[in-house]
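Q: Make up one entry.
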Amino acid sequence: MRILHNLSKEARRQLIDVLLRKRTKSELAHQIGVTPAAMSKYLRGITHPSDEVLGRLVEVADDEEREEIKQIILNDVAKSLREFLEAEEVKEAEELLLKVERRLNSLRVRREDIQYRVQGI
């Protein structure tokens, strides 16, 4: 996923934290193909998981974890966009942010509606 490349170091750590709620550090390291030493370095902030490792984190996540991961990604991207627009003093920054937020909310509503319909079948 290309979007993973743009995640902040903080968001990368949050993705790991989500998965560690249901696994030990060793189990997660094994599942995503890194050494326990690498996992320890991620957790101590010495290094950060690569885009490839982040992709594997998403792959091993269950449905509940994926939903939380999506929220972390959306929040991080929105924060980055807001910081960029504020730094660049874009005239219509606030208007653009509102459009993006409305679009994201409409996608969430559609998704929830689809889930409700599927569960009702």
